[in-house]
Amino acid sequence: MEWSKLLSTKRLSGKKATHRNEFDDDYKRIVTSPAFRRLQDKTQVFPLERLDFIHTRLTHSLEVAMVARSLAKEIVILLQEEVKKQPDRSRQEMIDRQEDVLKIVECASLVHDLGNPPYGHFGEDIIRQWFKKNLPNLDTDKVKRDIILKKNSKSKYLKVNYKLGYNERKAIEDEMAAAKYLSSGVFFEPSFSRNYIKNEIFQEMIGFLDSEGKGAYGIEKFYDEELTGTDGIVEGMKNPGNFLTVDAIKNKKSVSVQNGNNIILTIDSILQDIMDEELKRAFQTYNPVSAMGIIMEVETGRILSMSSYPKASNNAEVKNRPITDMFEPGSIFKPITVAMGLDTGVITPNSTIYSGGQIKVQDRIIKEHDPTIKKTYTIEELISESSNVGMVVIGSRIDTKVFHNYLDRVGVGGKTGIDTFSEMSPKLLSLKDLTAVRKSNVSFGQGIAMTQIQMITSINAVVNNGKLMKPYLVDRLEDDRGNIVKQNSPVVVRKIFEDDTSRRVRKYMEAVVTKGTGKGAQIKGYRIGGKTGTAQKPGVKGYDNRKYFSSFIAFFPVDNPKYIVLISINEPRKGEKHYGREVALPSVRNVLEKLIKYMGISPEGNIEESRKEKAVEQKPMKDLKKLLNEFNNNKMPDLKGLSLREIISIYPQIKFPKYKITGHGSVVEQYPEPGTKLDKNSEVRIILN
Hints:
Helix 4 (57-85) packs across helix 5 (89-96) and helix 15 packs parallel to helix 17. The strands form 9 sheets. Strands 9-8-20-19-18 form a 5-stranded antiparallel beta sheet, sandwiched between helices. Strands 7-15-16 form a 3-stranded antiparallel beta sheet, with no helix packed on it. A hairpin with a 5-residue loop joins strand 15 (474-478) and strand 16. Helices cover 39% and strands 17% of the residues. The radius of gyration is 32 Å and the shape is flat. By secondary structure, the protein is of the alpha+beta class. It folds into 3 domains: 3-110, Hypothetical protein af1432 (Orthogonal Bundle), CATH 1.10.3210.10; 269-477 and 490-610, DD-peptidase/beta-lactamase superfamily (Beta-lactamase); 624-688, Trypsin Inhibitor V, Chain A (2-Layer Sandwich).
């Protein structure tokens, strides 16, 4: 190997330095480039405490460069020993230019992560799958080459791998029939694909399929086995000279096709729309990194809505943030600390705690958000006015082992077990790592990382008489005839807090809304409990006072909670507002108002009688199979009264691609009218109330 030629000093641009060579300049060009600097925004390991080293892609690349240079140096040393024993020109040349070689290795290590797509190796896999699927179709000369090969071969048939839509196939068949080409031996092999209606609001939750038709993300992956059917098989003898069709086979033995099961979600499409629109509004108003929200039934753990913003533009970007993105919860964690204190007896409803604006824990000073306020707090005021010092005092009174056990039982550091793919969770701090300082931080919601689904599940346990519910997204599985194969039911994971503890904390959280930091969440006539949260985000050196994670969680009614809502705004960057009460609370209030109106909920949490009567008034069920047959016969059926789910189950999107579905509820209007003849150019509009 001629190293003098290989290690070229020629560069495309830049002035040549006099005091350093080009390989040193390469290092400078990399570390000062915007592409390299952007790696600091990609966290590799989430920090748990202020003293923790924040492991980003940037620090990872620097570490790799250091290790790689060290290894390369070891190789050079070994080569030096070998050259002493047996001279070798090429190896000697490498030894002589070792500084250049080491610098190249170092530079290569620095840039190894620059090309990584979002979401790490998963993104790489998605890109790989896309190219595997689509690259052959990008070659426009493939058909010409195939035809030439066919002419030069003795094969009777040429298989052309093109994907055609229903309308394209029909047009080709019509043209062939008109030209009497049907006897020429052109055949179409049907294939089926999954299509998603209103995919923009369900995409991150439902997920998608890979190039092989297997579930690759979300519910599609989690329930892939249940969703996948079994292919049918036909065996027999073919008549000589006939084309291989099912009709040409004699003495057939067949195995029937078994369709996969249908999945019915717990998600309410209207509530999903409501949440999605509110997150979009918050995103446009505050320009955050992301916004995400969940609506859950308190007593059951049923997820009624789960969404985030911005939306993905392709499958590689799909990310269900409420179950993947980890954050330090901040003050929304404080009700858990108070519940611990009441349950263990270190505080009582009559306890008071004095705050001098700050408190010293070992060598750390922990301050209130307003250190100038010095007062004696009741337990209710500790939550309603969100005292950091008060939480530190309560946490310090609880035995560390007991405190750690509560964290484990409430779900910190553990997955909720929600029935979808990709749920993330950091490990729970070890008992050894739960130092006095870290324990103090955890008491007011810093120094721990949680996802939204973990956070809402934990707070739900506090307000649900201490019962931790397993959240779930799928209500039931049905076969293709509508028979229930599996019915999911509420699961109580464990009982954590006493009923009385839960009742008292609910009252304290109501005070947050009536007279504390969450007063903006009040809705006339309704008793709502809540908690604001504003957590500083970790930066390069400790916490960054310019970046915040803002949240608000609310439930109602206070005495008998039915619904709980959590919305989080990740790093609002537009305007001066960043507190949870400023950016997240208004969104939660809007969702609550619309939830109450849509569900017809009384202040006591009951569904209004008028709503119940409407629910009882069930119209005769329409024969969906009959309606589907009408579609297949190019005839517009009567869809009035059908739900969105029923429409989705029968509408042939491939056959009639020009359609639009608007509104919520059931069908009230349709165009064209029932009985109208349809073709590929027909425009179908379905309006729901």
